[in-house]
Peptidase metallopeptidase domain-containing protein (Carya illinoinensis), 324 residues
Amino acid sequence: MGQKWWLVELAFTLASAIFHLLPSSSTCFCYLPPPPLWVKNGWDDRKTSPFGFLKHLQGCHKGDKVKGVHDLKMYLEHFGYYQQTKNGTHAKDDDFDELLESAVRTYQLNYHLNATGILDAETVSKMMMPRCGVADIFNGTNPMQSNKKRHHHRHDSFHTVSHYSFFSDAPKWPASKYHLTYRFLRGTPAQAKSPIAQAFQTWAANTHFTFSQVRGFSKADITIGFARREHGDGNDFDGPGGTIAHAFAPTNGRFHYDADEQFSVGAIPEAFDYETVALHEIGHLLGLHHSSVPGAIMESTISTGVTKGLHADDIAGIKALYNV
């Protein structure tokens, strides 16, 4: 098994080297289901976001038959909301069926939207936002809902409810691995390394973890790379917009940016901040899933031209997961 992963990493390193020679703008965001259908169907040109098809579906509801509804089903399936029937026929048609209505309603509940099952303007706007590629729901388990009832915190003057969540079965690093090493794969832009290193230090300052970089081909707990489209981990990137990065739950340690995205150091219009994206993905590497708290670094969506730091919800999540 170890040899297999070594070969996969070698292939990824070689691919990264090739990608580095190709024209690129820069790179970004998450758990990894099969590549979504809209990647294959061409929702990935440089003028149209992979999620752009959602715009003309605004107002759709159960009983409608509209061209493009099957792409909505694939979108929701990719992020864990829509479960196909055994023969997959419902996913291939454009019928806004009861299964799709239920999936839309669950999405709305996760993101504190009006849970009608109708694809209203607010829902479409949220779905079209660039986001982390990690699915919200795994094998029917919805961490964004199942964990909510448990995280209550009382203070002298106020009462708060946290909305952090964990991956299925709450995987985490063993106590022997609270110091983690990381390595940049070949092809990582030079300007990305310092912001990513700063993101690790921010997590170290707020948790019991420490981090250090190793160089060359030294073995590392975490590997960071930039890739385009299919890159060997089972979760293809989709071109500019759409999903911007992804990382795996402990103790896998892989973190990939989408090299087709525009990235920047700091808040620059039309670009994603390297450090903000890294803070989110490192949260996944440590065991946090998505949060429904607006402003939390573990919120699944991200906008261009902004920077974010750790939120109290993110820090509370790590402390709860590791019981520290």
